[in-house]
Amino acid sequence: MSTTQEKPMTLKSLSHKKDLLTGGHRMCSGCGAPIVLRQVLLAVENPVVLTNATGCLEVSTCLFPFTAWRVPWMHSAFENSAATASGIETMYRALRKKGKIKKEMNFIAIGGDGGTYDIGFQSLSGAMERGHKMLYICYDNGAYMNTGIQRSSATPFGADTTTCPAGDVVPGKPQRRKDLTRIMAAHNVAYAAQASPHNWKDLITKVKKALAADGPSYMGIIAPCNRGWRCQTNDAIQLSKLAVDACFWPLYEVEGGKWTINYDPKDKKRPIKDWLKPQGRFKHLFAPGNEWMLEKFQQGVDADWESLKKLQEAFGR
Amino acid sequence: MKQMNWKELPHAGTILDAGNAHTYKTGSWRSLKPRWIEENCIQCLFCWIYCPDSSVMVKDEKMTGFDYDHCKGCGVCAMECPGKKGAKAIVMEEEGK
Q: Which CATH number characterizes residue A78's domain?
């Protein structure tokens, strides 16, 4: 272990680390996902192996014969990022037992929300249940952005996507998103958390905790997508901050059954419409006659936030 | 670049040169260009931590400029730049001006 861990973590101290995700990848201008992944990789101290589910991040960072990763990285298919990582981790344990590997290593599986919430869900659930010592990271942009903005089960209520287009008949996605971080916490994983790239310190600390946890860990990280969210290329960090301030994406962690809210905006809590307004995918929510949708969205967010606070009360500290 | 034939391709299509995307230039995507105004810079490094394209160059804990070969001109750095006394240290300017 390096000695930098005892010192307070600052951007200056982090800046000595080599970027493990290089420039020259083909992610869109202003995409949130590479910001998230750069921060995740800054937290890694040991040699690391990554697996990646199909998605924007996978196709755009690894266009043959180029790879933007300076670490071993593997893609197999859409549905099995977690299964691939669990296989690699099992092989590592076997080789370690035989004395062929001496080093401590980390294993991180990455997926977008489509590859995590929907298509990769069974392999993720299986890997977490089997207890592999690996971290699964879902960068959540709330739709299948890679194939052209189709709805996923992470898409928020009311969002306009190509498979639930907002029009006269259907006002965007009729269902609410599912809360995967809580589903993962229900797997009794060693560590489950939600993070946001605007709070880099919280994100990096959580990745360090997750990698140090003795067992499987899961992190959901919000990753704004300006193409799918229909916003500007420069507001990825602003929108991730707003999502946290509006309690749409609360920062919390579940460590061995102990629930902790890491950031409570208290009286600075923003109404959800502040987060929805800059996003073109929610434009129709502000049209006359759709006030009920804004109200329903707010009610859903408030109910989730209240129940999270109750969980902290009941199972915190 | 020169195309590889089937004999030259690595087994199973693996890429053996880690991080070789660095040799691929994405700077031509840019329509807006970030300009660094050093006197307004407080060296907070927010631009560096929030850059999606690893295009903010940092040496000895100090921001030293942009990697225009890879910067796609998204403007996240300029947006997040706190600047000094309200004056931004990064401004976006149109390319070619």
A: 3.40.50.970
Q: CB A23 to CB B45 under 8 A?
A: no
**Pairing status of strand A191-195 against strand A252-255:** antiparallel
Cα–Cα dist A201/A78, whole Å? 30
Q: Give yes or no for a contact between A277 and A313, defined as CB atoms under 8 angstroms apart.
A: no
User: Which residues of chain A are within 8 Å of residue B73 when distances are taken between CB atoms?
Assistant: 29, 233
Nearest to A26 among B26, B55, B58 (CB): B26
Q: pLDDT for A212-263, tens place per residue?
A: 999 999 999 999 999 999 999 999 999 999 999 999 999 999 999 999 999 9
The fold for domain B37-97 equals Alpha-Beta Plaits (3.30.70)
Q: Which of A75, A80, A25 is nearest to A49 (CA)?
A: A75
Q: Specify if A49 maps to a domain.
A: yes
3-state secondary structure of A241: helix
- Listed by start position, the domains of chain B span 37-97
| Nearest residue, CB atoms, B52 vs list A12, A34, A72 | A34
